[in-house]
Amino acid sequence: MLHRRVILRGVGFWQHRWGERSLLAALAILIGAVAAFMAAALHLLVTQCEKFGIWLTQTPKELHESAWLAVLLVLPMIGLFISFLIQRYLGGPRYAKSLSPLILALSRRRTGIPFVETFNHLLSSGFSVGFGGSAGLEAPSVLTGAAIGANCAGFLNIDRRRRGLLLGCGAAAAISAIFDSPIAGVLFAAEVLLPEFSVSALVPMMMSSAVATVVSHLIVQDNKFFHAITDTWRSDAIPWYFICGIFCALIGVYVIRAAYYTAEKLKRCFRSPWKRLWAGGSLLCVLLLVFPLLRGQGYLYIEKLFNGDLDALASSSPLLSGLDSEPLLLVILFVAVILLKVIVSVLTVDSGGDGGIFAPSMFIGAFTGFAFARVVNLTGIIALQEFNFVAVGMCGVFTAVMRAPLTGIFLIAEVTGGYVLLVPLMIVSSVSYFVARFFEPNSIYRKALAESNLLDEDRDRAMLRRLTVRVNINRNYHALRPGDPMETVIELVERTHEEAFPVLDEDGRLLGVVYLERLRSVMLNADVHDALLVFDLMEPMAGSTLRPDDDLAHAMGKFDASGQDCLPVCDEQGKFQGFLFKGPIFAKYRRMVREADAF
């Protein structure tokens, strides 16, 4: 505690001496270095698990030449089981395997992440993928980087308005360290996690991402993601890039819908986590035994596609090697990759493992682009450069799944070294983005949130959703009874100058509201004072009341529908809690806009 006070004094001096922006820049550098170190540790863990798995498969060959298949069969289950235990005892009931909860939390400006998440995702996903589980390491790395940023901000008492920016720095650094792609890391954080931040907020994220790349280079000497072969694009192939973008969009929509359908089906059939572990894990083990190229992240096979090494793909499935026709085997493998990769990825994650859809979408895209180019070439219409279409296919499916077109363009350009393909990447990414939005409006991360009405693409509504009615209730009111005379109301108006008065029954339940605007017309006519009671003046509020847990976006909709400037707030039993006024909401919204645009 003493050390923290000393550190906080130093932070306070720095901020006073050199300003908040310089402090955020320094923290961005620190977060980038730590996130890169954790990403390198995850890479090392996966590598060691893979080596251990290879050693396990070699030993049974001394007993029988086919005994190693039994070990290969159960390896993914071992990884799922270890990952399941890590999640259960380190993660707790709210363990998040997807970026969706993080996106929702950031949209609501909730930036508190438990410290345990700075390393539990690393362990859980490392064992899942290292032992053959079919998933990516990018989502766990992003969650780890975000947790590092959040805990660093919390430890140093950084203003809550700036904590989201430091989370973005951690996420950008994670992507940068994994792919050796600093630009894509920043764009991913900006497009997927923090779309509301201004352009100036990119500066700390760029610093964090650049530092992560440098640290990753120092830790992992050969940091080349994979060795890809690309060539200058030809103008006669431009129409085919447009068609390929459409094809990639349809595959991306399939990936999103298949992922949600498989996850929902698995959870509905096996409600117990233990049953899901054994049932889903068993099915996963069988599929991975038949189609070994679906194991792990799959980047090794993407490299083979770039090299045109189809023989290596054909020999990757020993159980299917008995097929007489190698072209038929390749067709089966390509169909399996495009249609089954997302299934095995969902089985890996939802059966008890950990990982993301980031790598599977790139994997599917590579095979989609190659298959498209190969089919066109077989028709004899044109001779397309197949390795180029592997790259643009990765970009197209990634964009359709993630709805991050700029990230897709620069990520593929950086990891393949294919900046010469910038124009085709832009064509395929934009076409895929617009076509995919036509069939599926939301990305794979935002689909569940949008369908549950938890997330809104409109910036104004998204800001208002962060606040609840409860914290904005005005509890200064004077209640009336239905039988009160007109004189009582006039006396309250003259004494309190309130705009509305609730009419309550004996139990405090709302019967209606007397608005000052209606009272004015009656107060001018003294002849009717003695004939009117509060019951005659009140307006029934059926359908116009609010609940304390409603968000302000819902409240603004009620304001627009009712035409009033204040609305009553009642609990579930109908008991009156207070009024919500429109004016303070607008003032708070303007303040939130200024804060969001400050960086």
| Overall mean pLDDT | 82
CATH fold annotation of the largest domain: Clc chloride channel
How far is the first residue's CA from the last residue's CA? Answer: 32 Å
Order of helical and strand elements: HHHHHHHHHHHHHHHHHHHHHEEHHHEEH
CATH architecture of the largest domain: Orthogonal Bundle
Specify the number of helices. Answer: 25
Considering the protein shown, what is the CATH homologous superfamily of the largest domain? Answer: Clc chloride channel
Alpha-beta content class? mainly alpha
CATH class of the largest domain: Mainly Alpha
Radius of gyration: 29 Å
List keywords for this structure.
single chain, Clc chloride channel, 599 residues, 3 domains, CBS-domain, mainly alpha
Topology:
Elements: H1 2-18, H2 20-58, H3 68-91, H4 100-107, H5 120-130, H6 138-155, H7 160-179, H8 182-193, H9 202-219, H10 238-269, H11 273-290, H12 299-306, H13 310-314, H14 326-350, H15 358-379, H16 386-402, H17 405-416, H18 422-439, H19 447-451, H20 459-464, H21 486-496, E1 500-504, E2 510-515, H22 516-523, H23 534-537, H24 552-562, E3 566-570, E4 576-581, H25 582-596
Antiparallel strand pairs: 1-2, 3-4
Overall description:
This protein is 64% helix and 4% strand. With 599 residues, the protein is mainly alpha-helical. The protein folds into three domains: 2-219, Clc chloride channel, CATH 1.10.3080; 235-455, Clc chloride channel; 464-596, Roll (CBS-domain).
